[in-house]
Amino acid sequence: MNRDRPRLIGVLFWGCAGSSAVLQALMWQVPVPARLASAATLVLLALLWPALRWRRGTGRWPVTTVFLLLSVLGGSVDGSNVSLFLLLIALTNVTLAFGPRAGALTTAALVVAQFAGQLWLGHRTPLWAAYETFAIALYGVFVMTLATAVNEARAARDRADRLHDELAEAHRDLRGYAERAHELAVAEERVRMARELHDSVGHHLTVVKVGLENAERWRDREPDAAWQDVHQAKTLTGDALQEIRRVVRALRPSQLDGRRGSDALRDLAGSFRGTGLDVEITVDGAERPLGPVRETVLFRALQESLTNALRHSGGTRIEVRLGFAPDAARLTVTDDGHGAAGAPHGFGLTSLAARVHDAGGTLTTTDPASGGFRVRIDLPDPPPHRSAALPRPVPGAAVPPGAGDAVPRRGLGTATRLGAGDAVPRRGACDEATPA
Questions:
Q1: Alpha-carbon radius of gyration of the chain
Q2: What is the pLDDT of residue 253?
Q3: Rounded distance between C-alpha atoms, residue 221 and residue 305, angstroms
Q4: What local confidence, expressed as pLDDT, does residue 246 receive?
Q5: pTM of the predicted model, to two decimals?
Q6: Distant-in-sequence contacts of 185-194, Cβ < 8 A, 24+ apart
């Protein structure tokens, strides 16, 4: 079955063809040759019916033309009004398959042929011929209008189907994008979790390891100091466990709870007592709140620097300077170890660079001429526009001109020395620390 053909058109065609056949069988007064010609016409129309196309752009002129001519011939030999409906069906096919212009031209041709036939062959008066022609023209215009409306409805339905397909495709694409975004979010969260575990638990375990090594080394000579290191290791182990639990709930250092700025940094430096590190913290300029994000960045920067000094550089003295300018903050951490010497950075500094970048700042690592290793964090306020590229700390990388130049070196220069007078021996405290 042709799905493009309107169902009502099919019902009308077979109804008209059957009615015409019955009428021809009952009309004995019609000559036999005329009835045979009418029957042959109906048979040919029935054979051509499945070959007709009913959607615009798919019509075939030879089939449509033959069907139209057979409809005209059937009406001329039939003489009944039933055959007129077959002609109108043929006109409908022309309009649906080839558009309203073809339908209008076909209607005009039928009107001219009808008028000429009535005038010369039917020996009608011009007025009577015009009357007969007007009826054909009226029927033709009605059918052509109806067929045009069907074409427009089909075009609207085709557009709706096309839009539906596009919407379905866009929905599939959007679902794919959502899945990829979910995968990226999961991957990013895993990186953040790894960074948090490295920055928190790794720091605690490093201090615990060094403290236990000191306790083992000096347990006979200075048992009180050794037990103090064991007690600190026990405390830090509990802190590490709490950090693991906290990472599941949030991604903010617990040491910052209730503390901020230099106070949190001093508490962090205090946790390194007994490891052999002598940490001095100096605040330059008028200290002001930086917000939780940037305070976390500075806290993690100092934590990573102290941990790296303990693990890798072999330094024992750490100088920390926290500077405040009207539109920026700077943290500089310098140790007296052997420096990076162009070695590639590990996961810790790479993760720290990502943190600083996310906060709108820059991270620079250098080997000072006097020796050691230096990490500098510059955090402008407010953060500038950040590019999509992820910066990596490069030894000796230059700081953009003017970045942090306004940080004052005089004024509120309070200095705090932590661990300088600690009773635990400093010599060899980090000699056997295994690099992570």
A1: 47
A2: 54
A3: 31
A4: 59
A5: 0.38
A6: 191/351, 191/354, 192/251, 193/247, 193/251, 194/347, 194/351
CA distances from 134 to 112, 362, 425 (A): 11, 89, 121
Strand partners, 279: 318, 418
For 283-295, write each residue's pLDDT tens digit: 999 988 888 888 8
pLDDT at site 10? 78
Q: How far apart are CA 326 and CA 316, in angstroms?
A: 33
Residue 151 and residue 95 in contact, taking contact as beta carbons nearer than 8 Å: yes
**Given this model, what pLDDT does residue 428 score?**
36
Contact present, 355 and 188 (Cβ < 8 Å): no
Residues 6+ apart with CB under 8 A from 374: 332, 333, 334, 335, 365, 366, 367, 368
317-325 and 278-284 strand pairing: parallel
Domain ranges within the chain, ordered by starting residue:
7-165, 258-418
Task: Return the structure tokens found at 144.
Answer: 């052509």
Residues (pLDDT < 50) of the chain are: 249-251, 383-436
pLDDT of res. 383: 47
Mention every residue, 6+ apart, whose C-beta is less than 8 A from residue 175: none
Q: DSSP letters of 217-272? A: HHTTT-HHHHHHHHHHHHHHHHHHHHHHHHHHH-SS-GGGTT--THHHHHHHHHTT
- Burial code (b: 16+ CB inside 10 Å, e: under 16) for 75-90 equals bebbebebbbbbbbbb
Give the per-residue pLDDT at 418: 40
CATH hierarchy code of domain 258-418: 3.30.565.10
